Amino acid sequence: MKQVQALLFDVFGTVVDWRSSVEAELKELGAKHGIEADWPRFAQEWRTSYMNETRRIANGGEGPTNVDIMHREILDGLLASPEWSFIGPRWSEEERTEINLVWHRLKGWSDSTPGLRELKKKHIIASLSNGNIRLLVDMAKYADLPWDAVFSGELFQTYKPNPKAYLSAVHYLGVQPEEVAMVAAHIFDLRAAASLGLRTVYIPRPQEEADPNPENIKSKANGGEVDLVVSSLTELADILNR
Amino acid sequence: MKQVQALLFDVFGTVVDWRSSVEAELKELGAKHGIEADWPRFAQEWRTSYMNETRRIANGGEGPTNVDIMHREILDGLLASPEWSFIGPRWSEEERTEINLVWHRLKGWSDSTPGLRELKKKHIIASLSNGNIRLLVDMAKYADLPWDAVFSGELFQTYKPNPKAYLSAVHYLGVQPEEVAMVAAHIFDLRAAASLGLRTVYIPRPQEEADPNPENIKSKANGGEVDLVVSSLTELADILNR
């Protein structure tokens, strides 16, 4: 990791806690209409469809490369589905527009801002997210994320894990792949980065890993596949800034 | 200006003082070899050729869309020219590589960082420069420029004043042109932005305006063509944050 000049961060789940913020706003909008529902499941379905859609498009499928548009299409689909149709007719156009922007208003994990501030002192820190630029800019202001640069799949007309997303970021940073580390709570993201020569940092976050055995994701020093496993961004800063 | 959500900043000359930094490093490298030369004129020729080259490519000409490469090509051309050939043979490849990066190490004007910090509280602030992304990221760290986003002609495969540069930045910000203001010390930049519907802020800086009568550049309220004329970014913050 000593030659690493720049760190690219996955954002949803890795730097910000999308789950609690989205659940809370859904619950609040539901309460306004006297609706009780399994909001955690609604939030998870919204998120899961997003993951599936971005993956499909990353693999060459057709679809929006702006996540605001994608989130809205998925939201409308959920609200029209039999399971959630008791909610759909009660949420107006304005309310759907507003709740769709909850993804711009996500809180950072408690270690995110202090960790990024420390890492920024000796490294270039940038997002590499599938979120669109405006979403990432709003989120950075809301959650106080001091990015040096905001990279998005939107800029490169694809999504992670398409190689073009990682290689475009490396290109604009003017470095070699091995001089960049990808930081993520999702092993699929790190596997894609590693296959292109980037270094990898895994940071487990609650309920983020799709792999059924996240405890098996280990550093190379411990017989695993990633370069580092850390429990927080402040720990990562302690290691890299040594 | 009340509907303006985002400010796009020209950088070289507008936010940072390229002239003093470039002159000082040229002089220092000259002194190392015992060379006396008209470094202010050398710096101006380097800058003028850059302006001409970016303009030519913005108009559809062929050439590098990475300014590090362009700066180096111009530097090598100058050092090979009869006028500066007494310097050329004495500067090594390593020294040329290093002096070429002086454009990453430019100081902000004294009002730039405090002004940007204030403006950032109520607006999205982003660069919109012809400099390449890595250059702008290095410069932001060096000069403490707290951008929310770094936009560069490099991302859009063109240079200002090509309309694509302005319209791409507006697109990624997810706003209408009239919700964005371009801030620059160069009227050509503001004229291009205004023709696309952006708002315009002119900020005179020493020796930056190519127009022979910069005092004739006035706000619309004073019979001129730009939306605002300010003497500093802190003044701009005072006006917009009111």
Description:
- Two copies of one chain form a homodimer.
- By secondary structure, chain A is α/β, with parallel strands linked by helices.
- The first copy, chain A, folds into two domains: 6-17 and 106-241, 3-Layer(aba) Sandwich (Rossmann fold); 18-104, Putative phosphatase, domain 2 (DNA polymerase, domain 1, Orthogonal Bundle).
- Chain A is 46% helix and 12% strand.
- Chain A contains ten helices and eight strands.
- In chain A, the strands form two sheets. A six-stranded parallel beta sheet of chain A has the order 5-4-1-6-7-8, with helices on both faces. A two-stranded antiparallel ribbon of chain A has the order 2-3.
- The longest helix of chain A has 20 residues, at 39-58.
- At the A-B interface, helix 6 of A face helix 6 of B.
- Chains A, B: Belongs to the HAD-like hydrolase superfamily. S-2-haloalkanoic acid dehalogenase family.
- Chains A, B: InterPro entries: 2-HAD (IPR006328), HAD-like_sf (IPR036412), HAD-SF_hydro_IA (IPR006439), HAD_sf (IPR023214), PGP-like_dom2 (IPR023198), S-2-haloacid_dehalogenase (IPR051540).
- Chains A, B: Keywords: Hydrolase.
Provide a brief overview of the structure:
2 copies of one chain form a homodimer. Chain A has helices at residues 18-32, 39-58, 67-80, 93-100, 112-122, 133-143, 153-156, 163-173, 187-195, 233-240; strands at residues 6-9, 16-17, 107-108, 124-129, 149-152, 180-184, 199-202, 228-229. With 242 residues, chain A is of the alpha/beta class.
